[in-house]
């Protein structure tokens, strides 16, 4: 198997993935994924598509991710891993699609408008 690459996006984060056959080593921006994401919830988000496809220790994954916060980055990585797994094995597509790992979540932060303190919040109204 050659190297499979794919891109995942979420909020302001972009994750690029390079997947090869190996022993299950996951590297994010040159660090181990447990060091990059110390919280167990974000680690679980990254490993979810591998568990659904039952291929936890089949592939070595090298990830470069930038932009956004830890939640957006972890969900961008999850999407990229899911896309790579579908490229490697078409039979896992249905299971990943059922969990909505292949769908781009397009929700972004709404910009702040002028004359308002936030995007939609208004200053307190005073009648008198």
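Q: What amino acid sequence fits the structure above?
A:
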């Amino acid at each position: 198997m050659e190297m499979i690459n794919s891109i995942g996006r979420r909020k302001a984060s972009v994750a690029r993935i390079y997947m090869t056959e190996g022993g299950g080593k996951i590297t994010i921006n040159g660090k181990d994924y447990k060091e990059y994401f110390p919280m167990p919830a974000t680690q679980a988000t990254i490993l979810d598509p591998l568990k659904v496809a039952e291929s936890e220790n089949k592939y070595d994954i090298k990830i470069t991710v930038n932009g956004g916060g830890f939640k957006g980055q972890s969900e961008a990585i999850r999407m990229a891993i899911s896309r790579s797994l579908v490229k490697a094995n078409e039979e896992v597509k249905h299971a990943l699609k059922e969990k909505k790992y292949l769908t781009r979540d397009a929700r972004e932060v709404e910009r702040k408008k002028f004359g308002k303190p936030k995007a939609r919040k208004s200053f307190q109204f005073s009648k008198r």
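Q: And what stands out in the fold?
A: The CA atoms of residues 29 and 64 lie 5 Å apart.
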